[in-house]
């Protein structure tokens, strides 16, 4: 359980921060950038929800919760710690990735195949989902970079990869099932 009685602690005034296991590292460390970007993404998802309703809003709510799980996973570098510890690490699992894939398949069934690349835009929700897609890709790149030098849960990386795809397909859905997608016209302004 989380209890926050005081929001500021002054412990990070020197440029370091605590990880989920209590270790302190620099605030500009790659691990902090990776989970910080997932937190940034969560904020953008919150903005997207201002334009969403029904099943899309429900799915975005699930994704926001997943992103907190992802941040908790990424802030715990101790991949080999015993799960029976007092506070076992919360890890992303493949079932979360599988759920995204099932949702992508269900949404994609309503869409016509693409004949061009899509420019971010269209409806307000679609435009915001495209922002989420690009921030998700950045979070994925950071997690992949981190995984090249430190242990990272492979399900966390897979989740970010699938999540950006989810945002892309959801943006198409938000553009009248793809009918209002803004298509790229190569060389249009030459």
From TrEMBL:
Pfam families: Cob_adeno_trans. GO terms for molecular function: corrinoid adenosyltransferase activity. Gene3D superfamilies: Cobalamin adenosyltransferase-like. Residues 7-174 form the Cobalamin adenosyltransferase-like domain. It catalyses: 2 cob(II)yrinate a,c diamide + reduced [electron-transfer flavoprotein] + 2 ATP = 2 adenosylcob(III)yrinate a,c-diamide + 2 triphosphate + oxidized [electron-transfer flavoprotein] + 3 H(+); 2 cob(II)alamin + reduced [electron-transfer flavoprotein] + 2 ATP = 2 adenosylcob(III)alamin + 2 triphosphate + oxidized [electron-transfer flavoprotein] + 3 H(+). Belongs to the Cob(I)alamin adenosyltransferase family. NCBIfam families: PduO_Nterm. This is Corrinoid adenosyltransferase. It comes from Sedimentitalea todarodis.
